[in-house]
Amino acid sequence: MLRVAIIGASGYTGVELARILCNHPEFELTVATSRQYAGKPLSDVFPNLLGKTDLICENLTIEELCEQADLFFAAVPHKTAMDLVPQLLRVGKKVVDLSADFRLRDVAVYEEWYQEHSSPEFIAEAAYGLPELYREQIKKARLVANPGCYPTSIVLGLAPLLQKGLIDPATIVVDSKSGTTGAGRSANVGTLFCEVHDGFKAYKVGGTHRHLPEIEQELSGVSGKQVTISFTPHLLPISRGILSTSYASLSADVTEDALRDLYLEMYKDEPFVRIVPAGTFPTTQHVRGSNFCDIGFAIDKRTNRIIVVSTIDNIVKGAAGQAVQNMNLICGLEETMGLEGAPFFP
Amino acid sequence: MLRVAIIGASGYTGVELARILCNHPEFELTVATSRQYAGKPLSDVFPNLLGKTDLICENLTIEELCEQADLFFAAVPHKTAMDLVPQLLRVGKKVVDLSADFRLRDVAVYEEWYQEHSSPEFIAEAAYGLPELYREQIKKARLVANPGCYPTSIVLGLAPLLQKGLIDPATIVVDSKSGTTGAGRSANVGTLFCEVHDGFKAYKVGGTHRHLPEIEQELSGVSGKQVTISFTPHLLPISRGILSTSYASLSADVTEDALRDLYLEMYKDEPFVRIVPAGTFPTTQHVRGSNFCDIGFAIDKRTNRIIVVSTIDNIVKGAAGQAVQNMNLICGLEETMGLEGAPFFP
Amino acid sequence: MLRVAIIGASGYTGVELARILCNHPEFELTVATSRQYAGKPLSDVFPNLLGKTDLICENLTIEELCEQADLFFAAVPHKTAMDLVPQLLRVGKKVVDLSADFRLRDVAVYEEWYQEHSSPEFIAEAAYGLPELYREQIKKARLVANPGCYPTSIVLGLAPLLQKGLIDPATIVVDSKSGTTGAGRSANVGTLFCEVHDGFKAYKVGGTHRHLPEIEQELSGVSGKQVTISFTPHLLPISRGILSTSYASLSADVTEDALRDLYLEMYKDEPFVRIVPAGTFPTTQHVRGSNFCDIGFAIDKRTNRIIVVSTIDNIVKGAAGQAVQNMNLICGLEETMGLEGAPFFP
Amino acid sequence: MLRVAIIGASGYTGVELARILCNHPEFELTVATSRQYAGKPLSDVFPNLLGKTDLICENLTIEELCEQADLFFAAVPHKTAMDLVPQLLRVGKKVVDLSADFRLRDVAVYEEWYQEHSSPEFIAEAAYGLPELYREQIKKARLVANPGCYPTSIVLGLAPLLQKGLIDPATIVVDSKSGTTGAGRSANVGTLFCEVHDGFKAYKVGGTHRHLPEIEQELSGVSGKQVTISFTPHLLPISRGILSTSYASLSADVTEDALRDLYLEMYKDEPFVRIVPAGTFPTTQHVRGSNFCDIGFAIDKRTNRIIVVSTIDNIVKGAAGQAVQNMNLICGLEETMGLEGAPFFP
Question: What strands lie across the sheet with B27-33, from one edge to the other?
């Protein structure tokens, strides 16, 4: 068994990592850190884990951490991650970092949207952890920058179109909706039950969400030219799930059938991408609790636009599940190991 | 007191009409029809009305109906409405029709999206019941076609921009999200609690929703030229509320402050339109149970697009509340009568 | 217009008071205090109030407060209230206190369940604000202790049975379920959306909830002897609503019909108590947003127990609505003024 | 691989069985029947299963069924089951029946609460599928009557107390709350999203729910004497989960610590029963998607009652999961096979 640590285990990504790792046949969760809950059993913090793990939350030095594990999931906020991750790498550990700190290849862009970067020298070697696009780099990496949840849903949905040059990148509009786990587990009036329940809102309207440069970096990468998009995130009164509705003008004369063939072909070997049947569209409920990304689309002939609907469970394929998928790849394990469960419905 | 009837009282629009009318100082609800529940007290069908009305649901002939009321809210499905409404008009009654049957001015468009129209001769005289645009016509009408819920939210959000020619109509993309009351009260697997709860989906993707021609008719009207848009509706796991996020390329060089002045000016005398403070965006929770339409917006300078967020309670301003607003106008009453309540939060 | 202040306007009780007062024909909301939001428009804190009030949240001294209002709703936590309320009374103001500080007639009981009482001399003159039991006292009071939400639902449900001696008080078991507004608006991990949504739990199991002595005081009052009950509160994933299911052994041989007559008779002049039709049971949805308490019951012949189901909107009849009802009584106004709206469904 | 069929695959129990069986290492799902969806891929009916199964829903004769599978999960309504199950048994198949038809050992009781029984001769040999009480019988059975969801939660919660004679059976009051999957997947106005969402209600008040004789049969069994209880089910606005709050008078002088030892001892070898830490209480969220039953309790010294809180996922431990647990036992497999996943939170 490979010894695995979760750094920052008390958030929603942390508990989901723990849930997956509890049943993983090759990874053994040996450390779970939490400053706030140090000394408490992890199953006191998250009673769903009762009987599945006896780990006590700890607040450890890097040295202590490194004695107890070889593989690390860093589930700490950005800024904290950029200080922590290099210390792990320097002593030979392998890291999947779930923060934004090593996702943006251009440090200037990072510093424009976040803050000064303390370890820019590690950016270049970080693999961007979207296996559907970067599988080979990930396999060889010691540091994987696990993608953001919005970017995962959007890039998987639009990549085939951009790669084949079928849409005009300047016309892309992405309207995304996220479950509330995406807002984290900090005590906050804005995410109290009574503020979110039975409601819906947009936020970061006008192109100001920090996932935007990451989305554009990846869309530009597959497209081969600079892509600038409109992106509006919204908050859904659900726990898990992101659904992105992407609009773009078609730049070629294609049929829905031809596009379907394209998507099926591009993702035919992908274990976690499902193209839904013609005439149907994905829903968050049908990927809940799984590592799947479901994709559907339609052409609006009246406006010559294609509309792509893509959905993931934001804390699985959008965070913890994709992180385990990446760690599997790093370790040369079967990519789907520990992630085989079918989605929960209802 | 004016005698008012609800035809089709057993749906969500029906119960909301009854709720509003129960407290209306000038309207007296004298008839509530329901084929399915005939003979049952309306408060058995909707126990929230217990003690507020003693009406028994009835299944009446037109003659019986006309003896008992002078003003009619037709809350029946399209097709049923186009047969019913003319019979009421011919005997001198006044009607607010909540179906789609008299909304589209071009009967050919109606017949393309719905079915053959049996009473096209009444279309011309129907006022489109959006008081913010058609107040004077409504006041003089005997038939008001109450707008659809999606169109209400979208047209109020985009009208100022189109009227002033500030956006390129060809670039309009509208991504709308509706609460589940919009799907009606028929028994249906797709709208069971367990199918909708904790989930989210798109439907009628690709420009196939029947509200589309209505939206385009009205946007074209304010714009002065033919407008064709992309429109995708989604289903929210909430009961009440529509939120529409509209995107368009700016065709003029304007600031957010200038736009705010424009919106404030255009809607300054409107009792039910609220422009939310700069830097904030409307949410469905904050209009719940009220006749308000809340509007906010931002400019995305990176893409030169404006994003408008507009929200209503779909069964109030999007149906029953706007219908009462229209009936008030028809009757020469204070437009806001019976609709003064502040929204419910939380 | 009578000048009214809300002290502690930034909680859920505060916003609901403001919502009701905005449309009250005789009360004018002239002050809303909030330490946290001082200087901010109340409609920034609660955007549902936009256009309904221009009040700015203030942090005032008692002197300033007393200059600007004559009637006070104290919506502050217990302990804060017992210091504040006497200062208002001493200068001749009238107060409805929504905290627990003046509800328990026995100061020893108060101090056992809460803490030392700084103003025990005001307890005796406080009327317990359940108009169905104490209407005449309330009319003459200058201080009303507005009941707790759980007690309101339970006492109204059981009073007829205890008053007539039809049940054995020693066998009473009350299982209550409350919406999450009852937990307040403080930032708290336990009431985050993702912790409450799609879940259900019991809390304060074993007779430790602070509403227990209040419930027992009132049940003892109507019963004429000391009543000790089992009471378990639960947290519902809804915003508004309490439903209490009460069980007791019948001590007399009565039929459901006879009990129905008893309930109908006892509450026949009560504007806010509804006995639901035979064979039906109340639901939280059907009182939502209203000041109603709905009551239904059944006899279980197999066990000779009666089961009473009673429900209220916890922030209306369980807090703000009942507070306005009490203030109406204090001021000699129509008891239902400002509270006539029918419940919202769905 | 053992060939397994689901008869009645289009309900919520059906889809959950399919989800579990998709990943079961020894069972291969070879048939899924559905009259309504015959000819449709199961993954069209339940898109969560896309890519996990290629099965087409079929409407088969008994002969065809028996050719294609050896183990059967009967997920059809009661009455249908009693006709179907004997036909499978007669040709040597093994059956876990999820209906009520073989749960009640006394056919007269069955016929009082349901209807005439067409196959009473099979009742005696049916093992009641609660492994915690009947493991040895289940192992030897060819027919297992899978327990109802309410009974599972209640019997596991109260069994230790009754077995040791620590409570007075005549005082038992059980207040249960169930998620809406328990109401099935038939199109029904009462279970539409807008009827259930943001609400809560009691139903079958007064001892009329059909699970009552089953609960009493099992409580009487562990108690050794006839037990008659009060039982009130409620409908929660959640998909999955039952939480039962049980009250009873203590008939012995015991401490919470002693009771904790008792529960821990009785369930120490049970893979799916978890006693939650002292001072905490179980919640539906923490068993969601798993086969666990979580139990907590407190003593109310004021009333000398014990309150037991027990919770399960009603379609896992309350239906599909327990059915697989039973089939594992029948087949001599590891009891936990396919059921090892940790609960989902949030």
Answer: B27-33, B2-7, B71-74, B94-97, B143-145, B127-128
Helix (H) or strand (E) holding C109: helix C107-113
* Cβ atoms within 10 Å of A258's Cβ, excluding its own: 11
Surface-to-core class of residue A262, CB atoms within 10 Å of its CB (0-12 exposed, 13-18 middle, 19+ buried): middle
Distance, in Å, from the CA atom of D144 to the CA atom of A234, rounded to the nearest integer, reads 48
Prediction pTM value: 0.97
Q: DSSP labels for A307-340?
A: EEEEEE-TTIIIIIHHHHHHHHHHTT--TTTT--
B274 close contact with C: CB closer than 8 A: yes
What whole-number distance in Å separates Cα of residue C243 and Cα of residue B46? 18
Q: Which of D176, D175, D139, D220 is nearest to D318 (CA)?
A: D176
Q: How many CB atoms lie within 10 A of CB A145?
A: 30
According to the CATH classification, is domain A2-125 in 3.40.50.720? yes
Asked if B85 and B97 count as a contact pair (C-beta separation under 8 A), the reply is yes
What amino acid occupies position A210?
R
| Cβ–Cβ < 8 Å for B309, B157 | yes
Q: What is the DSSP letter of D146?
A: P
B286 and C CB contact within 8 Å = yes
In this prediction, residues B302-328 reach a mean pLDDT of: 98
- Per residue in B176-191, pLDDT (tens digit) is 999 999 999 999 999 9
Q: What six digits make up the tokens of D150?
A: 């309410």
Please give the Cα distance from A22 to C2 (Å, whole number).
63
pLDDT in tens, B43-93: 999 999 999 999 999 999 999 999 999 999 999 999 999 999 999 999 999
Amino acid C237: pLDDT: 98
Judge if ipTM > 0.90.
yes
Name residue C246's beta-bridge partners.
C174, C308
Amino acid identity, residue B23? N
State the average pLDDT for chain A. Answer: 97
B280 in C contact zone (CB under 8 Å)? yes
Contact of A315 with A146, CB cutoff 8 Å:
no
Whole-number pLDDT of residue A233 = 98
Burial (0-12, 13-18, 19+ Cβ within 10 Å), D116? exposed
The Cα–Cα gap between A38 and B187 comes to 51
Closest CB to D187: pick one of B180, B181, B187: B187
What would the pLDDT profile of D69-109 be if each residue is shown by its tens digit? 999 999 999 999 999 999 999 999 999 999 999 999 999 99
User: How far is it, in rounded angstroms, from Cα B322 to Cα B112?
Assistant: 27
- Residue A206 DSSP SS3: coil
Per-residue pLDDT reduced to its tens digit, A276-306: 999 999 999 999 999 999 999 999 999 999 9
End-to-end CA distance of chain B: 34
| Residue to substitute from D205, D236, D284, interface C, most C β-carbons within 10 A | D205
Domain residue limits, chain D: 2-125, 150-314
CATH H-level, domain C150-314: superfamily: Dihydrodipicolinate Reductase; domain 2 (3.30.360.10)
Instruction: Select the residue from B50, B239, B263, B316 to test the C interface by mutation, using most C Cβ atoms within 10 A.
Output: B50
Q: Which residues contact C19 (CB under 8 A, 6 or more apart)?
A: B342, B343, B344, B345, C48, C49, C52, C320
Average pLDDT over residues B235-242: 98
The rounded percent of chain D whose pLDDT value lies above 70 is 100
B partners (3+ CB pairs within 8 A) are A, C, D
pLDDT level of residue B251 (50, 70, 90 thresholds): very high
- Residues in chain A, pLDDT under 50: none
C36 HSE (CA, 13 A, CB side)? 12
Annotated catalytic, A194? no
